[in-house]
Design goal:
The complex is a heterodimer of chains A (about 120) and B (about 110). Chain A is mainly beta. Helix content of chain A is about 0%, strand content about 55%. Chain B is mostly beta strands. The chains are: A mainly beta (about 120), B mainly beta (about 110).
Chain lengths: ~120, ~110
């Protein structure tokens, strides 16, 4: 069975600093996608970044980047130049390319950016 | 991306009653999903709803309790039947778009008294 683990329930970071959120997963599959989603207090889930497992290059989206270590089954999210608007719950998610498109979510990390 | 709306945004219901939640998408999508999220917790998939076929339910969720309709490629409903306080939660719909990415609705906050 596939599992996703986020070992940091809560984190805080000073505005303009950099923070890294951890995610590990377990699967015997070889073809899958990994995602980070952000859920602000307003509750709407927003896709932050996506990584295809077959790509060695780490995905980046502006201030957000990932460190994807396939052999270690690790997928961490780095937020640079943190902003107050980054305060949210962050979920790591995993999807096998089997046609069902079902996600498996981690338990989430609550990030608070401090002014 | 896709714009997804849900109705109602929140509701307070009495135990034993049913509530139907609507999910509307601004473009045609094949796969829609319904999730439940306890406040401050992760998301649990209830079922996958594809147009033209019966919904596929995850372990622990049954059609009698959570009937789903998917009449076309832009709309779906989830009904929470015979509600109890344990059904108090946030219910979210999502759609699969562009090769695996899911986009989520704003959620429906349900409180059962």
């Amino acid at each position: 069975a596939q599992t996703v683990t986020q070992s940091q329930p809560e984190m805080s970071v000073q505005e303009a600093e950099t923070v890294t959120l951890s995610c590990t997963y377990d699967t015997s599959e070889n073809n899958y996608y990994l995602f980070w989603y952000k859920q602000p207090p307003s509750r709407q889930m927003i896709l932050v970044i996506r990584q295809e497992a077959y790509k060695q290059q780490n995905a980046t989206e502006n201030r957000f980047s990932v460190n994807f270590q396939k052999a270690a089954k690790s997928f961490s999210l780095k937020i640079s130049d943190s902003q107050l608007g980054d305060t949210a719950m962050y979920f790591c998610a995993f999807m096998i390319l089997s046609g069902t498109y079902k996600y498996i979510f981690g338990t989430g990390t609550r990030l608070k950016v401090l002014a | 991306s896709a714009v997804i709306s849900q109705k109602p945004s929140r509701d307070i219901c009495q135990r034993g009653t049913s509530l139907t939640i609507q999910c509307q998408v601004d473009s045609q999508v094949t796969m829609m999903f319904w999730y439940r999220q306890q406040p401050g917790q992760s998301l649990t998939l209830i079922a996958t709803a594809n147009q033209g076929s019966e919904a596929t339910y995850e372990s622990g969720f049954v059609i009698d309790k959570f009937p789903i309709s998917r009449p076309n490629l832009t709309f779906s409903t989830l009904t929470v039947s015979n509600m109890s306080p344990e059904d108090s939660s946030i219910y979210l719909c999502s759609v699969e778009f562009q090769g695996g990415e899911q986009y989520f609705g704003p959620g429906t906050r349900l409180t059962v008294t």
